[in-house]
Amino acid sequence: MTSDEFDxxxxxxxxxxxxxxxxxxxxGLRTALVEAERFGGECSYWACMPSKALLRPGHALAxxxxxxxxxxxxxxxxxxxxxxxxxxxxHWDDAGxxxxxxxxxxxxxxxxxxxTGEREVTVDGxxxxxxxxxxxxxxxxPRLPSLxxxxxVPFWGSREATSAHEVPESLIxxxxxxxxxxxxxxxxxxxxxxxxVISQDRPLAxxxxxxxxxxxxxxxxxxxVVHASxxxxxxxxxxxxxxxxxxxxxxxxxxxxxxxxxxxxxxxxLGLEAFELEAGKALPVDDTGRVSGVDWLYGCGDVTGRxxxxxxxxxxxxAVGSAILADARDPEPWSVAVATADHAAVPQVVFTDPEVGxxxxxxxxxxxxxxxxxVVDVDIAVAGSSLHGDGYRGKARMVVDEGTRTLVGVTxxxxxxxxxxxxxxxxxxxxxxxxxxxxxxxxxxTISEVxxxxxxxxxx
Length: 460
Prior knowledge:
The chain is of the alpha/beta class. Helix content is 30%, strand content 25%. It holds the Pfam family Pyr_redox_dim.
């Protein structure tokens, strides 16, 4: 091979692209990893890591306040919180990520990659060729609402919200999804006056109905003003900030506006039109990540629209790498070369206080899938939760397919429930029956004892 010839070319150097490239490089294939901005991607610098670094100190303070006898103050040290956040982003320097790639046998190439021919990628005028495959892992970009005046007003996206170096005096958050609720709580706990505006009757509307109610209560306890079922009409610049007007005549003024109304696959400007693929839309892929109609092109992560979560994208990337190594055409459903879990076993955590942990199907989704559904709800009120903090409030839901007596969905909401999700994920992926699950005895006294209460409520 020449210096511009590779076995595999991966476009997109975030966690998803890194996993795909790492897999093929470890398998002996000469692999290039192309990145237009920072190696490490959105998650490392503007999403998962900085957002959780902003949230965790507030959670720790709130948890300490729930325990009598623990000496705590009333406010966070915002300067220290932001400094720790900067450490987790490596101060937005990707030298460490480049070093990792090179150590893994990957050839990092900085620049914007465009697919310009069959197995051909052009990076700022440099033409690269791939003997086996091209992989697209370019992630997603913000979706902006159709809102009068938005194009004329300075506003934050998720990047600005996670990388700001001063606590805003006041912040209007537009959007009740994961980014909206997490950033609303993070900045409220750091001292900002936050207003959350959502179009649905509750935040996190795609989750089980009770989830949004718990999260909204948690936000209000932190001083966040929540406008639910609100239709926005316009936004404009006013002295000292921005003004958001609602359809009912309500006017909301804040120093900054955060627009968090979702994301779309980043498939524009990649040259896909030449292969009869629609730019700006999700890539149509099978479970190996192979793009429909283009035998040598693969996609993984947010670009596929399947499960836009970092952990799920990394899982799909490992499947893509394995599929390329084996030239897998129709592998077994649960082999390492397919992303089978994307269909019905996707876990997700929302890092608010209370936390939300969910995996599988909601009760509504299970019914839509034609399953014979039984829903079991219990409050999280066990010895472990009582010890965890005074006034602990939480809820758990178990969705059972009565045809097979297996779990198809589990939701937890409450302080520190995130670490309970993986047990539910294993039960769903393993198709463990409730009768067998009865013998998985939860340790006492832990919050996990809620599993026993769920099964007792089911009737075991």
